[in-house]
Amino acid sequence: MKPALITEIETLLGGVLLHPAPVRVNDPLGALMAYKQGMPKYQMEGETLIGLNLSNAGMSDEQWQGILGLPDFQAGRIRALNLSDNQISRFELSRGMAALERLDLSGNQLESFSLPAGFGRLYDLNLEDNPLHDPPEEIMKQGRRATLRYLQQLAAQGERQVYEVKMLIVGEGHTGKTTLWNILQDPNHPVPDKTQASTVGIEIKEGWAFDHPDFPGTPFLANLWDFGGQEIQYMTHQFFLTRRSLYVLLADGRSETSNFPYWLKMINLLGVDAKQKEPLPVLVVLNERGNPIARMPYDPKEAKKDFPRLSLIKREVDFAVKDGRLKALPEDIQAILAKLPHLPLKIPAYWDAVRRELYELRETENYIDFNRFREICMRHGIPEGDEQQMTALSQLLHDLGVLLHFHEDLSLRDFLVLSPDWAVNAVYEILRHKEVEENQGRFGQRLLQKVWARSGYTPFEQGHLLNLMLKDNFEVCFRAEEGQRTIYIAPQLLPAFQPAFAWPPKGALLRYTYQYPFMPKGIAGRLIVRLHEHLETEKGRKVVWEKGMVLKKDGCRALVQESEDAATGLKLIKIEVGGASPESRRFVLRDIREELEGIHRRSFLNLRYVEKIPCCCPACRDSDSPYFIERSYLEELKADGIETERCRQSRKDVSVRELLGEVFPAEGLAHRVRPAGQSGPKKVFFSYSRHDRPYLEALLKHLSILKRTGKLLPWDDSHLQPGEQWDDTIKAELAKADIILLLLSSNALATDYIWEVEMKTALLRGRRGETKVVPVILDHCDWKEMEELKALNALPLKGKPMASWPQAQQSEAWMQVVEGIKKII
């Protein structure tokens, strides 16, 4: 018989039926927390309720408060709550709920969440998919463990409320950005200043200090970033155009042509946080420059329609005239800054002390190593062995623009740049050098050393600055072998026109197109950097130009280039793959698409684009300009059970399944063409929780050499194709895997599908000797409670969880996993 308390909860929820959670001896809370559609659950311990799973129950704030107010609801006995995917906008943890171990509030409407002191039992917290401004997004993006650690530190150390923000002064060259920068620092700065040169690279002025307009006596700091307006610099600027900042966009009152629309689109793309309810304020300053009839270079009504997430605030001044408008501008900016919705930023007290010392340190030093950073952290109260907290702090400061720390790059992990402009401007010294421009983007090590040594950079600094320029960091150049010498190539400085090369290759071509309503500058260049290892060589030189390249990979050749649609003017990335077998062409296309979409995900999360697939009717197969169909439209047809689509050129009906099948690989990588004599690779299936995707990506990165050398063929659920029967495909991949890696964590052990399908199948095939099963332990979880798992040799060595390794030793831990896999292969 159902407990009376559960019946009362069902009544409060409008008749939603709750079910007892399945019994799972080794992980009782995991069985409760796992979501199953239409199956809200509860868990009792004797006659006491210890857990609720009300995920997707349509619950409001009032209903949750009603549950808390039930006489028999003992908040102090609750150990697990899954309240995900509801309409909760307020959730306060009382000290009386200190028994809580797991809490899932993802997919609600929370704008803030805090953790009282004394919640030491809580080890699993999920706040994803909420419009949060507290904890800040810079913490949330580091993952669930980092978010929980941040909240625990706030509770333990006490918080500091910091009114500090980035103010980004942008626009094309000669619009008055540097003049504004100087006036804000010194109202008495002479205007016009004929000795003033245009900004090259980035100039940063920390600590434009003033009292908060609404809270007298409360200090407010704005860090001013003045970005050079030359187009060659736009690509690197993108790394610093962040959300939760004030953008000041300068317009030129004399210019007939303007790059103003480009900057407006970039701010809309990189500055807007889609989760925030209020539009992003953008101050648009028109510098009249002596033109009495100067007008703003945009139509307010059109701008409001095109950019509904921006609130454009207009100011008109003449930087050559010290009148009342110019004098009022700093106060206007201060008032806008004070209203930014994400302020104040709450920082644990120890973290704030570290931040303050780093600000002081940068007055005399441009960078420090991680040991020095560790010492500073320890001096301000962060425990000696808590490198996870130290790394979380360094990443928060990286995302806020206080410093640069690419902690995932082995070559840069020990290099914390305290002055970002020092590093960025070193990069521009190379890109703007006359010899580099004359050689059209090609330069050697000697030139790097000569230019940087002349500017006072030491050999140690030069090595790290070069690594900043390469793949996975700024991605402005790549290393290549040409003419029996090692050089570097910067794609944005290459010739605009294609070099001579043979195209198309014999046989059929596989085509694919990305169409962009707006394309940020530099996407093609970054794609070239990411794929440079596969560039074709013709007469001793790489076949690459400013916006395109030819690749040679797995028996195929591929042409990838940025172009423009002649009819619409929209920017395109066009991909053509020829050679080898149809399946090999599909895999090469997939590899190119993965790199391009990786750029989208990492740098342009809000970027809109359309993917197009060529028609495969007989007429289009033989055509150089086939009819292209939107991929999303084909997926909708397939989902609706519509089997054909009509080609607009030939007027013939074509199978939807065949259209998608022409482009996307049908099965695993086993069909790739391999060099003669090479043995077949081992198929590796990765079982993991979606919440642990960052761990999987880190492991795949360390396995890349085994993959490239054809020894290993990884498969995980990201290989599922649109409209594919995912359950059937996963089971098929499990059935043919040579190695099954179980990435075990509290998240994985709480997922029913992993328990009931993936783990069960893996262990069964392992017992039969059909596959090798290897547990990889990600965090502290009860995996040893299952005898069959406990008997397996886990990685890293001795089953030490990845989460318990200090950040500086993470690569060592992953290499232990790689070495273990090598032994099986």
Short recap of the structure:
With 825 residues, the protein is of the alpha/beta class.
Q: Quick one: how many beta strands?
A: 34
Strand order of the largest sheet: 23-24-25-26-20-27-28
Q: What percent strand? A: 15-25%
Based on the structure given, which CATH architecture of the largest domain is correct? 3-Layer(aba) Sandwich
Tell me the radius of gyration: 29 Å
- The level of helicity is 25-40%
What is the assigned CATH homologous superfamily of the largest domain?
P-loop containing nucleotide triphosphate hydrolases
Gap between N and C termini: 54 Å
Average pLDDT taken over every residue: 87
Annotation field: number of helices: 29
Low-confidence stretches: 667-679
Q: CATH class of the largest domain, anyone?
A: Alpha Beta
Task: Name the structural class.
Answer: alpha/beta
Q: Domain count, please report it.
A: 5
CATH T-level fold name of the largest domain:
Rossmann fold
- What is the molecular shape? globular
State the major sheet. 7 strands, antiparallel
